[in-house]
Structure formats: C-alpha cells, structure tokens
Specification:
about 40% helix, eight-stranded parallel β-sheet, binds nicotinamide-adenine-dinucleotide, binds zinc ion, 54 helices, NADP, seven-stranded mixed β-sheet
Length: about 1600
C-alpha cells in the first residue's frame, strides 16, 4: 500500500510532553508517557542521520509494542521529511530472559546485521529490560568498532538503573556481566506508560533499586517513597490508556510515578557524570549489593536481582548498625519501606520461602556459602570486603564503600549467634544501656502529644508497627504534624490542640491492637465542620484485626451518645464513626466493662479531657484487669497537665481541658528488656546502669532489680528514674528460695538463667505465679527447663512455676558450647545470651533474629556496649526444625477389620513420633460399652451415629494433627463418614486404605470374638461391597499381603511407616538434586526375581530405583486384558519392590513410541500412573502429552518427571533447536523434573547435549538430558542428575547405551569431574584395623577413585597437618583415643555427635563453589547407628523396648554412643559400669535427661537382669557374673572386635543369648560412614566381604 497510496493523509503526531535529565553534560534522558512519536521525531531531527535503524527487543515486548514503534517510525518520518525515501527499520526479536545475554546471542545478532549489510552509519535501539539493554548496547559498542545506540528501557529496573551509565555486558560461564564495554547511549527514552504491562514482581524488582538509591542519597526522597507506596503502585496498575501524554492529561498518580522514577534516574545520572568509570562515588550505588549479589548467586533465577538486593540492603544496614553508625530506627524504616513495595527483607522471608522452598532456602543460604561468593566480589580490594555503610537514611559514612571485617558480615548473615563469655576486664567497667522505649508508654505519649498544645520532642520512642500505625492515623486525622530529628532518634510532634479533621480515606490499622482501641474513641473528636451531615470516618484493619474484640468499648461509647456502627462483623473492626454536627464525644457519666482489656479504659481516659462534659468513668462488670496500665495512663496524663481524680476504686473523674505538651518527653525504656543488661552485670560481676527506669516506674518489671537482683547478692542503687546494678564476683550469686514473680511474669526467664548459676544460699530457686508463661510465644516454662538442661542445670516445671537447681558456673563447662533452641521467642534468646556471657564455654543461640520483636539491636549492645564475644553461628539442624513447623494433619487408616490397621498404625506412630488412636476403642471408651453391646442394645444406626460424631471430632479437633487414626472397618458405609474423610483429604490430610489379602483376613476374623461376627463366607461379600467405597474416600493405598515374596510382616510394617512418612511429608525420601545422582532401571519381567541380597548389589551407588512397568510380564497382552486385574498385578510388583529396597521408586510406563514396550491404551497408562501416586511412588515418570497436565495437578506428594524421548534422534536436537526448547518448556509446565532424551548420531551430539544442560539445568529447575546409543554414552556420564543406569547383574539394559554407576564414576574421574580424595582411620593402635580393606573395597565396587589409609596418632592436634589440612582430604574415621579430643577441630557437629559428645566420623563439606578451596569439617557419629542397626536385627520380639533394660560397660566416647543408641531404640532403663566410677558418674550426668532411670553401679553383680548388654572397653578382662544373664532372650553386643570372642560374648553365648560381635558393628557403622562420605548407596556385600577376608585371616 505504501507505493500506491502516497497521498493518503498521515495521522497527526502525538508528541508527548517530557522531562529531560542531564547526564555527562547533555540532556539525553527523556521521561514521559507514550513516547513513540516523540522518540522517532527526536531521533530523526537531533541525532546524526542513519541509513539503517536496527531495533532489537524480546518476544514479550515485541507482542505488545513492536507494531506501535514500527507505525510511529513511518508517521514521524512522513511528518519530518515528507517525500524523502525513508531509511530502513530492521527489527530482531530474541527470547526473553537472562539466558539471551550471552556471547552466542551477541554473535547471532552481529551475523544477522552483516547479512543485512548494516554499515557504520547504523543506529541500534534496545527496546526492553536490562537484558536487552546490556546485550544490545554491547553489540552497538563493538559492531564495526562502535555504532550509534539508543536505549528504550521498558522495565523499571532498566529505567532507573541499567539503561543509565553506559555499562554494557554479556554473561559467561565464569559469571554475570564479565565481558562488556562502557558505551554511552545517545538517548534514553523512558516511556512510563509501558510499565502498566510490566509484571508486578518485575516492578517491585525495580523498586528495590529506587529505594536503595534514595537510602544512600536523598532523605527527602526516601520520605516520599515511604509515604507513597500505594499511590505509586496504583499509578502503575492504572497507567494504560492515553492518559499522561500531556501534562494536562496526567493523573496525580502518574505525576507521582514520574517524580519517583525521575528522581532516582537523576541520582544515577549525577553519580555517573561524576564518576563514569566507577572509581569511587559510583561504588555507592552498590549499597545492598555486596550481600545481595551473594544471595543472588545462590537463588537466581528463582529469585530476582532486586529481591536479593532488598534483603542485602537490610542486612548491610544491619552491618552499619552493628558498627555503631546507623540507628535501629533507620534500619526498621528501610525494611518497612521495602516491604511496602512487595519486596522481601530477610533471608527467611516468606516471599523467598514461597519461591525457593524453606529447606532449599536454608540449605543454599548457609552463611559460609555466602561468604565464599563474597570472597570473589569484583568490588573487593584484595581479600578485604567492602560494604556501603549508611550513616543515616539518605547519607553514607564515606563517599565510597567502606572496608568491613568478615566477622561482622558473617554475624549479620548467620541464623544463629555464638556468645562467648565477656572477659573479666570488659565486664568490670561500668556501662550505661538504654533499652528500647516501652510500647505502652510510646503509644500513650503519641496520643497525648498529638492532641496537646505546643511542640513536644519525644525521645526513645519505640519504633514498631504499632506506633507507626498510630502516628500515621493521627496525622491523617490532622491531629498533628511531625518531623524527625537526630536520624530518627527524636520525634518532633507539633500538637493540634485537639482539632481533628476527617481523614481523606479509611484509616487502615493493620493488626495494631493498641492503636485500634485508642483511636476508636479519638475518632469521635473529629470535627467535620458544617458539611457534617452523613460524614464519617472508617477505622479498619487486616483480617486478624477484624476478629479482635472491641465491643465493650464501643458499647460504652454508644451508650454515651457516640455514633459508631460495625461495618462488617458485630463486635470488631471495621468501625464507622459518624460526625453529625456538634455531636463529638458527649462525656458525662460513662459506664465501661473493664474485665477484658485495660486498653478500653485508657482509650476513654486519654480522650476524656476533650469531651463536651467532664467525664465520670465508672468501671463495671467484675474485676478490673491490668490495673497497673490504668495507673500508667493516669500518671502520664498528669505529666501532660491533666489531673485525673480516682474518686473510688473503680471510678475516675476527668475535668475538661487540653494537654499541655512538655517540650521534651523521654519515653521510659521497656522494663522487661532492661532486665537483660542488668542481669548481665549481675552474672559477670560488672556494673550496668539503665538511666531511665527507676523506682517511680509504673512498669511491673521495673521491680526486677530490687526484688530479684538485690536478694541474689547484687548491689542495687535506684533513684526515681534510674537503676544501677553491680554484680557480686563471678560465681557468687545467691539462690532466691521461693519467689512469687506474678507482678513481673515476663522477667522470670531472666531470673531463671541467673538462678541456674546461683549456688549460694541453698542453690535452689522456686519461681511461682507465672502460670501464664506456659502459653506465651512458646511454653516458656518448659522451654527454660529443656534449654537449661543443655547446660546440665536441672529444673522441675510446675503448673504455675519452675524450680531451678543451680550448678556452679565453672561446672557449666563443656567441650562444645551448648546450643540453645529459642522457639522463636525473643525472651528465651535474650535471657540465654546473658547466661552464655558467663558460662565458661559460652553458648550458641540458634535463632538470632527472634530478638527483633522487641530489641533488634540486642546483639550489637551485647557485643559493643557490654563486651561479650558475639559472632555468627550456623547451627546444625535439629529434627524438630526439619519439615514444616506446623505438625502435619493426621493420617487416617481405613480397611477391613483384621487387615492390621491397629498394628500398622501403632508401628508408624512409634517410628514417626506421632500419637495413635483406635477409633473403635475410643468409641467404646466414650460410650462406656463394648461395640457388640452398643449394637445389641441400640442397633446399628445408633452405633454409626456415634461413629460419625466421634470421627468428626477426631479429624477436626481431638486428633486433627500429628496422630495416626485407625478407623473401624465399616466406617465407609455411612455417607456422612465418607464426606468427613473426603474433607480431610481436601484439607491436605492423608487417608490410607489398606488393601487386604482376603484369605488371610477371613481366617483371622473367624478367630476374633471381640467384634460382631460375620456369617460364614460373608467377609468376602462385605469386602466386595466396600471395596469401591474404600478406594473412593482414600488418597493412599497399601497392599497388606504377607504371602508376597520377600514381603513378610516386618516388611509390610516398614512399607507402611514409609508410606505415612511420605504422605505426611515427614520423610519425603527424595533424591538430593544438588549433586550427581543415579537411578537403576530394573528390567526383569518379575520383581520377585530380585532377592534382597541381589538387589542390594544392584542398587549400590544408586539413589533411586526405577520400576519399568512396561517391561513387566504382567503387561504382556495389555491391549486386551482386564484393566483392574492388570493394575492389581502391578500393585503386587510395586509392593515387592518396596519390600526389598528402601530407595525411592521411579514409576515408569514407557510407551513404544518413546522407546519402551507399553502397547496398551492411554487410559490404562493414565490409570497406572494415578495408581502409582496412590501407592506413594516417590517419582512418577509421565510422558509429555495431552494427559500430562492432569496427572501433574493430581500428583500429591509424588514428583513428576515429565519426559520426552526421541529414539531416532532426528526431532529432538540439542543445538539451538526450537523443538528442544519447546519440549523443555512443555515438560516444565507439567513436571517437577524435566527429562529429555535423544539419540546420538555423532560424538559431538554429547557436547551439544551438555551445552543444553548448562543452559537450562539447575537444582531448582532440574533437567535430565542425554543421548541414547553407544555413541551417546558420554552424555550419560555428563548428565547432571538422576541418570538412568544399569548393573551387570541385570539381564538387560533398559535402553541402548545404558552404562553402570561404576563406569560413570570411572569416566568422570578420568574426565576430571570427580577428584580423588584421601580418607583415613585416625587413632591408635590401628595397625590391624579392617577399615581400610572395607572402604577401599567399597570405593572399588563403585568405580570411585578414592583411597583409605591409616593415620596413626595419639593426639588430635596432629591430625590437622597430617590429614585434615591436605587439599585432597575427603573424610576420616576416628577411633580411640581421639573420639572426644577431635571435637575442637570440627567446624560443626551433627546433632547426634553433639549430643553424644564424641565424633567417629569426619565429613568434609565443600565450600559453595566448585573452585573454592575452602571446606569445612563436619563431625558426626555413626557408632550409634551401627549399634542401633545390629541390635534391631538381633533383638527378640519378646523384649520390647518398653520392657527392656540395658547395661553399658565402659564410660568413654564409645559408651556415650551406646547410651545414645539405647535411647534411640526407645529403651528407658540403663545401668552403667566403669572401673573408674567418677567417669561413669559424669557420663550419667550428661544423659540423665534422656532416661527414666540411668544409674551407675559399683560392681557388675549389682546389675539386675538386663536384657541388653553392651561392652565398649577394648581388651576387656572383666569377669561377667552368671546372674547378669538371668533374663531370657537377651542380646550382648561388644564393640571390641579383638579377640573375636570377648569375655562378654563368651559368657553371653554360654547363656544362650544372641550375640553381636564387634566386627558386625564395625561393618554397620562403616557402611553408614561410607554413605555419608559418598552420598550414594553403599555396596554393602563387597564391603562386608572385604572385612571378613581380612578379619578372619587375622583373628
Ligand atoms: N548495565 C547496568 O548498569 C545494569 C544494572 C543493573 C542490572 N543490569 C542487568 O539488567 C538485567 C535485568 O534487567 P531486567 O530486570 O529489566 O530484566 P529483563 O530484561 O529480563 O526483563 C524482565 C522481564 O520483563 C519483561 N518486560 C520488560 N519490560 C516489560 C514491559 N514493559 N511489559 C511487559 N513485560 C516487560 C521482559 O520481557 C522480561 O521477561 C540483568 O541482566 C542485569 O545484569 C545491568
Ligand atoms: Zn542492582
């Protein structure tokens, strides 16, 4: 059309009104809305003419904006150069995303430009986000040595950051942005209208940089950002349409958006102008990036740059605070502002958890990993890390980044904190500490200052969400104006004298309870003027707030004549307060019910001076709660010039008047917080003054110094407004005897840690009156008991208190600092940090951040002001912290009577630490009759009605969580019960159906007399009737058939435990995808052919096992067979496999089209895959097709491997093939793990495959990719995770080219992908140890290049230079005499090793990056695992753990492991014998808390009939008296293996006990070691044969 219709009128130009920003001396940044016409016009008229315009963009933006820019190009040209031939406009569209920012894409664009014959007079435009800008800028910088370049940033990040400054780059394997150039764009066009299509997360991403820039540069701008979050977000959301083209059409929000963006861009432009090449000033823009980048390196691409920087900003602000340069107020404001724009602010932020998963997050953000990344930061000077240190919001400490010690950074990014005792000298000095302001006093002061007359400077105000909300609301009501001074340390309130106006919008109070109560009265003071008719103010809050009560207050106000109505729910916010003219707050006589909250009383009192009549407030309705808070209000009102008279116990008179603001008001510190520094002085023998709490204080906890510390032996000097405490010499605190702490319950934790070391005066402190502390943030009484136990301090907990039995300070000593669990409770953390400051070995406080609730800077104070040693700690995980914090919903079992519901349920409950309930028993208990009696007396219907009622109560209340619930067999018969079960499933619970072998069940029922009998033969009919019902209301299924090969009853029990563990998520049994892993494909037609022993050999080295359903005999003829029969056959095969192997199962039905053998229908295949999810297959392989999305959405806890196989290797090609990219995308849309398999035609296909993997695989988005065929073998070697493997013992490989784990390991070793590691046994004497033979045989069997030798040493210190420090060190076994002395050399201990207090296994854990030479040593203990395994196998069922008792001989490191093992086995009565009794005593002291009875005996004959005896003494020559073996069916285990028959074993054998020789334990613990070192299933047979070969030859 262009040719023929030349004369057609061109549409009018739409030239935007723009704002220009200067950079490097020219006004080349253009901001506005709808810039396309303006842009081309500007380019054609102001920039050098070009022959070709090349516009590069990505496909997202192309779809949205490319046509517009093309059209505009023509229009602008026609207007400017009518008649002249238009230059060329070429466009190039790339895939979106960071992967496009590569050298390959750059060459691709360049080659295309050469093809298009572009010349030096080309102008290149980048339309897109930072990816396009960086990449295309680099093309422009180097194309023919540089051509003209224009940026058209479309993401917020690109606008305020990446487009400005001329930095261009591409990513390489070595890292991001490592290759590039400085190349300034000639223009930058920021069209803010396009932000309306930017995804919300991307918008937040850019806001991180905007907030960062304001934080380092411009305090005023920061204030604006802080106050305008809603407005700015609205501007973006509503930015569409043509609004904004001209100033006249620009909305208020658009103006705000432009203001904010332009301001940020201007700072960046300014900095670039003054420091183009980043020599100093420009480094400031890296605020938040030192730590942010390290986080990004771990979490990208799941988490965006700006999200990581947001967290980095907060953490770096905390570094500044820790260094003493920045106040907590600023840190809190920064975090709050980032959150307001949808950004995360902490390393465990819920946003990050949602993106990465909690466990992954924790794993990847290990502090040491982050430090490793920071070590190679470009910004470092040598090894010195540099951080931009804020001096306040809007200014930095230096005009460049500041050198910061590693230790400080490490501390801030750590989860835990290690507190070391304060040196005597530091503690002796007198210190002054001002804890944060009291919340109650802060809120009252704000309210009165706002209503008062004159200006008040409030100091030490608490900055919390509560006070923030209060302040914002009071400002919105025009009650006052405010300003901050001294970096936020002082709030200046210009009081409004009680003249309140109607706020412009609803007042949002979040979940700030105090603010809501206070303001409910305040809002009645609003004077809406003459236009008052119908005007009102709405007070509202978040969902939680909308449930909190406020009815007594509202009732009282209404009765007084106030116009208040509930907008939603009766009795709660939102409230609408009407402002009919002249109404206000009438005053006079007011009656108020004050038994629920004293805040109602304070609310009325605080506003009372402004009522129209003097107020007489009468408190009615029972005992007034929290009188001290009412006293506080009255006292503070006096300080603001208003005298309240208390005329009777519950009656107050408030005269009319106005508050007169004092010029300065210092908010008293929080008295509960003040107990910690004061207690610090008490325990360390130092002196501490809290300058603003004294005897005049109205806070209950203010009495702590006088009532608790003075009687404990401290010198306390108290004035009306200050308190000074001087502690007695260390270790000289006196116990309190009985003390009632009712008036200061929150301070009991502080008292308890002092009492723990107060050995003077009887040494026992009994704290009472604190019953409410059972139900605070955690059960604090139990928490104190359990955590003090870690220091060896004994406590007894009571309903209303706790008894603490002190232990001498010096005796708290232990080799490893105790690790204190804080239950996320700030008070637990702070009180234990006080104890740690004096305990000889200090202590680890596991959750550092929980102090944020009241005193975020506590650790700074503890280190800087008080002088304790404080450093970061990375506590090892404890069982209770794994998994989700909320206990999983209960698991319900349904199935025929007699199938084993109770037996299995009990077994699972025991193994998984759950409760168990049998609903039939429960029903009999509740009703008080047996079931046959109920049915006989009341009939079946009555019975079913009871059953339904109880089931409902059980699933919703009594046993809703953490329980295994076994239902009666007929539960599914009633419709109501089925609905209850389905609802349980819908909520995320598990209902497991036990599928019986009906022959067994019928036989069992015939013998059972406790339940109404079925008529002969009926059981089968009943089952037929119920079968469908069971299936319909369950989501898991277990086959209970002991007649299957290898599936005896104990295997069924194991299978059930595993299924429940899986269904509840407690033991998900998943493969670790952060390191190479393999699964072995079983190809036999019948799984029963794999005897357990053979299968153990087959799976050695693997991490999962694949059930190839299509290869099963059962599938032959699947086209015609009955589907139900087929599925049942496969279920049996699945069950056998689960009985013989604990490894996760990959369930696969491979179709013929994709190289498998399945020839059945799609519906049968789908039915099988769904069944696999029901059976609890950990992984289900689903081929990518039309059914895959449905299966994916029903996958429950199974993970779907979405696979596509091209057995021909013709369609799926790895080079830049669209097909491969598309299949990957589709696989990711319907799978947790993608699997793409091709066929290699040439060897180079392996390289291409590997490159594809490099581009697309990460632990978060795993990809299995390889080539079939002989030529493709190398791609299997290089496959990153879950490589399918075969084994020589298998008849056939599952696919052409499949190789073994050993072959893969050998190839990886040769290829340089699996470095050789050195392992050794450390100890003495060890010359004859079979360990080297065992481990070397294991390495050989798996093709691993490692070696295991001996390192004879009697001193642990020698091990560092000899072994641990060597770069190829892989791990070590530790034996006598080093098991305990090696502990100080470890960087961390596992919970087991820590509890046992001995290490027998050293594991080298590598640093984060492969290149990092740093590594750390993890100390573990597998001795106890060896004992547990051997005892479990040898024990007779006659001796259950509950009745068993054990004798341990010896008291060294091995004995400690033995005791821990006995505890793991559930044995609760243990005796200990040792030649040197004192050693036994100290052992018993360490473990007493784990047992009902743990006692030392003087001589062996004192032992009474143990059922288990464990010997731990090498070369033991003791005489074991015959009486010891009087118990029947006992087990004796000797850890010593020289000689084979030790005196213990000889004696046991004589008495026909089971015996476990030491060599068996040696093998078992060694197998566990091997697994921990290699992260692979150990080749157990090879290892144990090697030991026996050596051992039998020697002994
Ligand atoms: N050169 C520098 O100084 C500098 C500074 C900071 C960051 N960067 C680089 O910038 C890159 C990140 O930039 P980014 O955050 O803009 O990511 P991006 O370029 O990947 O864009 C984010 C996503 O948003 C889409 N998008 C962008 N604008 C849109 C719009 N208006 N409407 C709809 N969709 C839109 C994109 O297609 C993309 O999918 C990184 O590579 C980083 O290294 C460079
Ligand atoms: Zn950045």
């Amino acid at each position: 059309m262009a040719g023929s219709d030349k004369q057609t009128a061109v549409r009018a130009l739409q030239l935007a009104e723009v704002e220009r920003i200067s950079i490097l001396g020219s006004e080349s940044i253009v901001c506005g809305f709808h810039l396309a016409d303006y842009m081309w016009t500007d380019i054609f008229s102001s920039l050098a003419a070009a022959s070709t315009y090349v516009l590069v963009t990505d496909s997202n933006l192309a779809a949205l904006y490319l046509d517009k820019y093309r059209e505009s190009f023509g229009v602008a040209w026609a207007h400017l150069r009518a008649g002249a031939a238009a230059p060329r406009l070429l466009t190039y569209v790339l895939a979106p995303g960071e992967t496009s920012k590569s050298r390959a894409t750059k060459s691709e664009i360049e080659d295309w430009m050469f093809g298009e014959r572009c010349t030096r007079d080309t102008l290149v435009l980048a339309l897109g986000g930072g990816v396009i800008g960086d990449l295309v800028g680099y093309v422009a910088a180097t194309f023919m040595r540089g051509v003209g370049f224009v940026q058209v940033p479309t993401s917020l990040l690109a606008m305020v950051d990446s487009s400005i400054g001329g930095k261009t780059a591409v990513d390489t394997a070595a890292g991001k942005n490592l290759v590039g150039a400085f190349w300034q764009p000639q223009r930058i066009f920021m069209d803010m209208a396009v932000l309306s299509t930017l995804p919300a997360r991307e918008f937040s991403n850019g806001m991180a940089e905007v907030i960062k820039t304001a934080a380092i540069w411009d305090a005023a701008e920061f204030d604006v950002l802080e106050a305008s979050a809603d407005e700015v977000r609205r501007a973006v959301l509503t930015g569409g349409g043509s609004a904004g083209l001209t100033l006249a059409t620009r909305t208020a929000e658009q103006r705000m958006l432009q203001r904010v963006i332009a301001a940020s861009a201007r700072v960046k432009a300014h900095v670039v102008t003054h420091d183009e090449r980043e020599t100093g000033l420009r480094g400031l823009l890296n605020f938040g990036h030192t730590i942010g980048h390290a986080i990004e390196a771990q979490l990208a691409p799941a988490v965006l740059h700006g999200e990581c920087v947001a967290v980095g900003c907060v953490l770096e602000a905390e570094v500044a605070r820790r260094m003493g340069h920045l106040g907590e107020v600023s840190v809190a404001r920064l975090a709050r502002c980032l959150r307001a724009y949808g950004l995360p602010t902490a390393m465990d932020d819920p946003l990050l958890c949602a993106l990465v998963g909690k466990a992954q997050l924790r794993e990847r953000l290990q502090p040491q990993r982050l430090m490793d990344v920071m070590r190679v930061d470009k910004k470092n000077v040598g090894t010195q890390k540099r951080v931009v240190v804020l001096a306040r919001l809007g200014a930095t400490l230096e005009p460049k980044p500041t050198n910061v010690d590693d230790a400080l950074i490490l501390e801030v990014i750590s989860r835990g904190v290690l507190v070391r005792p304060a040196p005597g000298t530091a503690a002796a000095a007198a210190v002054v500490v001002t804890p944060p302001g009291s919340k109650s006093i802060s809120n009252r002061a704000l309210q009165m200052a706002a209503l008062g007359q004159g200006t008040c400077r409030i100091r030490n105000l608490l900055h919390s969400d509560d006070t923030q909300v209060m302040l914002a609301a009071l400002q919105a009501m025009g009650g006052c104006s405010i300003a901050w001074e001294d970096d936020g340390a002082t709030l200046v309130v210009h009081g409004g004298g009680g003249q309140l106006h109607m706020p412009p919008a609803d007042v949002y109070l979040g979940n700030a309870g105090t603010a809501a109560r206070f303001l409910a009265t305040t809002a009645n003071l609003i004077n809406a003027g003459s236009s008052a008719a119908g005007s009102s103010t709405v007070l509202t809050g978040n969902a939680r707030m909308k449930q909190r009560p406020c009815a007594p207050l509202v009732d009282a106000l209404r009765a007084n004549g106030c116009d208040i109505e509930y907008v939603e729910r009766e009795g709660s916010l939102p409230l609408r307060v009407g402002h009919a003219a002249g109404r206000g707050f009438p005053g006079g006589h007011i009656q108020l019910a004050a038994s629920v909250s004293s805040q109602y009383v304070s609310s009325i009192l605080l506003c009372a001076p402004y009522a129209q009549e003097p107020v007489r407030l009468e408190l009615v309705g029972g005992k007034v709660i929290s009188q001290p808070y009412i006293d506080m209000t009255v006292a503070m009102m006096a300080q603001f010039g208003c005298a309240v008279q208390r005329v009777a116990a519950n009656e107050y008179i408030v005269p009319r008047g106005a508050y007169r603001n004092p010029s300065e008001y210092v908010v008293e510190s929080d008295a509960s917080s003040a107990t910690y520094p004061l207690a610090f002085a008490a325990i360390t023998g130092g002196q501490c003054t809290v300058p603003n709490i004294g005897s005049a204080s109205l806070q209950g906890d203010a009495r702590f110094a006088v009532d608790v510390l003075r009687p404990m032996g401290c010198t306390v000097e108290q004035t009306a407004t200050s308190t000074t405490v001087r502690g007695p010499p260390r270790g000289a605190l006196r116990a309190l005897g009985d003390i009632d702490m009712e008036p200061m319950t929150d301070a009991f934790l502080t008292a308890a840690v002092l009492a723990a070391v107060a050995t003077g005066g009887g040494g026992v402190t009994r704290i009472r009156g604190i019953a409410n502390q059972h139900v605070k943030e955690c059960d604090r009484i139990v928490a104190m008991r359990d955590e003090l136990a870690r220091f060896g301090v004994e406590c007894l907990d009571h309903a209303d208190g706790i008894d603490v039995h002190a232990r001498a300070l010096a005796e708290l000593c232990s080799a490893v600092p105790p690790s204190v669990h804080c239950y996320d409770d700030h008070r637990v953390a702070m009180s234990f940090s006080v104890l740690a400051s004096a305990a000889p070995s200090g202590a680890e406080i596991r959750e550092r951040r929980c102090v944020g609730k009241t005193w975020p800077q506590w650790w700074d104070v503890l280190a800087r002001d008080l002088g304790a040693g404080v450093s970061g700690a990375d506590p090892a995980e404890e069982a209770e912290e794994l998994g989700s914090p909320a206990p999983a919903l209960s698991t319900v079992i349904v199935g025929m009577r007699g199938v084993g519901k109770s037996t299995l349920g009990r077994a699972a409950a025991r193994a998984l630490g759950l409760a168990f309930v049998d609903m039939d028993e429960e029903l009999e208990r509740v009703v008080g009759k047996t079931i046959p009696q109920i049915i006989a007396a009341d009939g079946w219907d009555a019975f079913r009605a009871h059953e339904t009622r109880l089931l409902e109560l059980a699933l919703t209340r009594d046993f809703a969580a953490a329980t295994v619930v076994a239902c009666g067999g007929g539960v599914v018969e009633a419709e109501a019960n089925r609905a209850l079960l389905l609802r349980h499933i819908a909520r995320g619970g598990a209902v497991v159906c036990l599928t019986p072998n009906m022959q067994h069940v019928a036989a069992f029922l015939a013998r059972d007399a406790t339940r109404p009998a079925y008529a002969a033969g009926d059981a089968h009919d009943v089952y037929e009737r119920r079968r469908e019902l069971y299936a319909a209301c369950s989501n898991y299924e277990l086959l209970v058939d002991a007649s299957l090969p290898h599936a005896d009853w104990s295997a069924i029990e194991r299978a059930f435990v595993r299924l429940v563990g899986f269904a509840t998520g407690a033991r998900a049994n998943r493969v670790d995808l952060t390191r190479p892993s393999h699964f072995v494909s079983l190809t036999a037609p019948d799984v029963a052919t794999y005897a357990p022993a053979r299968l153990a050999a087959i799976v050695a080295g693997a991490h999962a096992v694949e059930l190839r359903v299509d290869l099963l005999e059962a599938m032959a003829g699947s086209e015609s067979a009955d589907a139900a029969v087929l599925v049942a056959d496969v279920f049996r095969q699945f069950s056998i496999l689960r009985a013989v192997s604990p490894l996760p199962i990959v369930f696969t039905v491979r179709t013929a089209a994709q190289g498998g053998a399945f020839a059945g229908s799609d519906s049968l295949r789908l039915r099988l895959l769904r069944a696999a999810v029901r059976w609890g297959a950990e992984y289900v392989d689903a081929e990518v097709d039309a059914h895959a999305p449905a299966l994916y959405s029903e996958r429950g806890r199974s993970l779907v491997i979405a696979s596509f196989h091209d057995p021909t290797g013709t369609r799926l090609r790895w080079g830049r093939s669209e097909f491969a990219a598309e299949m990957l995308q589709r696989a990711r849309a319907c799978g947790d793990i993608a699997k793409l398999i091709s066929f290699a035609h040439t060897w180079d296909d392996n390289i291409a495959c590997r490159e594809f993997v490099d581009r697309h695989h990460s632990a978060a988005t795993p990809l299995i990719a390889l080539n079939m065929g002989y030529t493709g073998q190398m791609s299997r070697v290089l496959c990153p995770v879950l490589t399918p493997v075969t084994h020589p013992l298998l008849a056939a490989a599952a696919a052409p080219g499949q190789i073994t784990v050993a072959q893969i390991n050998q190839a990886r070793a040769i290829a340089g992908l699996l470095p050789t590691r050195r392992f050794a046994l450390c100890g003495s004497p060890i010359a004859h140890s079979p360990s080297p033979a065992m481990h070397n045989a294991g390495f050989a069997a798996l093709g691993l290049p490692h070696s295991y030798g001996l390192c004879e040493a009697t001193e642990a210190q020698l091990l560092m230079p000899a072994l641990f420090d060597s770069p190829d060190f892989g791990g070590a076994s530790v034996t006598i005499p080093l098991k305990e002395s090696v502990i100080p050399l470890m960087s961390a201990l596992t919970p087991a090793a820590r509890r046992i207090g001995a290490v027998n296994t050293v594991i080298r854990t590598a640093g984060a990056s492969a290149s990092a030479t740093t590594s750390s040593l993890l100390g573990d203990n597998t001795d106890y695992l060896g004992i547990v395994g051997c005892l479990t196998r040898a024990s007779s069922p006659a001796n259950s753990a509950a009745t068993a008792s054990a004798l341990v001989v010896g008291a060294g490191g091995t004995a400690r492991a033995a005791i821990y093992a006995l505890h793991s086995l559930g044995i609760r009565t243990v005796l200990v014998y040792n030649r040197t009794k004192s050693r036994a005593d100290s052992l018993v002291a360490d473990f007493a808390d784990l047992f009902d009875s743990l006692t030392v005996i003087d001589k062996l004959s004192d032992a009474v009939v143990p059922t288990v005896i464990i010997g731990t003494v090498p070369a033991c020559d003791l005489l074991f008296p015959d009486e010891l073996f009087a118990g029947r069916c006992g087990v004796a285990l000797d850890m010593a293996y020289k000689p084979r028959w030790t005196p213990l074993l000889e004696a046991a054998k004589r008495h026909e006990w089971s015996v476990v020789p030491g060599v068996d334990v040696l093998i078992e613990q060694g197998i566990h070691q091997f697994e921990k070192w290699t992260h692979a299933t150990p080749p157990t047979a090879a290892m144990s044969e090697a030991v026996h070969a050596k051992y039998d030859a020697n002994f």
